[in-house]
Fold this sequence. Notes:
Layout: E1 2-3, H1 11-24, E2 30-31, H2 41-44, H3 50-59, E3 61-64, H4 78-85, E4 90-96, E5 109-115, E6 125-129, E7 132-135, H5 141-158, E8 162-167, H6 175-188, E9 194-199, H7 200-209, E10 216-219, H8 221-234, E11 242-246, E12 251-255, H9 272-284, H10 288-304, H11 318-331
Parallel strand pairs: 1-2, 3-12, 5-10, 8-9, 8-10
Antiparallel strand pairs: 4-5, 4-11, 6-7, 11-12
Helix pairs in contact: 1-9, 1-11, 5-6, 7-8, 9-10, 10-11
The structure holds 1,4-dihydronicotinamide adenine dinucleotide (NAI).
Amino acid sequence: MKHKVTGEGIGPEVAAATQRILDAAGVSIDWEVVEGRAENPSETGQYVQEAAVESVRRNRVALKGPMATAVAEGAPSINVGLRKALDLFANLRPVKNLPGVKSRYENVDVVIVRENTEDLYSGLEHEVVPGVVESLKIITERASTRIARFAFEYARRRGRKKIHAIHKANIMKMGDGLFLKSVRRVAEEHPSIEYKELIVDNACMQMVLDPQQFDLLLLPNLYGDVMSDLAAGLVGGLGVVPSANIGDEVAMFEAVHGTAPDIAGYGLANPTALLMSAALMLEHLSERSAALRIQEALECVYREGKRLTPDVGGTATTAEFTDAVIAALQTS
Ligand code: NAI
């Protein structure tokens, strides 16, 4: 099986660490390394490298490093471009405490399912007149129903008991209203799963006050992006939360965090999020025992707490942390 690994900033550092650990876990992977960013986009108008899209389509699965996007100017996001080009409609982010990682709460275990293709991420913006910009929020019945089916099906398979749909349909009565109506129809087909709705601002407050009440959150794209980082902050931050982008044909796994330019090149990045994303990828590839062994080795290193990277309170380098996980794998 071939997979793709790339990334900017700390991407190559955490990708190399993850590859070393997967090798040590005895998973046989033939890595196909591809750049995600196209060359000369200003000449071609093509921002996402076509070879990357083709590679993921061919191999059907990919492990992706983070890629930078300029703020308030410049090219569109390559990350969003890849998700759209590959129709990776479901973004899945399991958020759970890791032993030994200081956090505000214990026993947080919530899965976030975010619609990944539309909403304000449609990238449709224009200047109406100077000083007035319109950004289009696109919500369709098709995409809302598709993500709802994914969430309820995931809950059924994984024994999740309760789904909260998050919205702002009191204000965006049509757009978020359509999202909710579509989700409600799917909820009716799954009477064994408790279904609730929360307005997004209240949901944020509830999440900060009492995250253990949540089991699975189902959200449109933008609220999903914001609330999943909020949730990550409750269990120790972006360095320790994985994610998967899933479509009907292909799946792409990546850490929730970005390129971390402030620490790139210093050997201090925490590879845990990408490693956990790789473990999700192994589960997807039916390599469950390897995924479990990696997760156990990781938890063992965190429980001992001696070789942790600075973002989670330690002093270890990326390489020292990686060596510790490999040593834990070899003694398990
Ligand atoms: P960021 O996630 O890169 O960094 C936020 C903070 O978390 C920084 O202090 C950073 O040092 C720390 N951090 C992140 N990952 C870490 C890790 N593995 N180990 C230790 N510390 C870590 O977010 P920021 O600064 O907002 O974005 C930087 C760039 O990344 C931007 O260009 C943004 O567009 C891009 N980005 C890419 C994503 C992707 O490829 N999926 C996701 C989020 C941001």
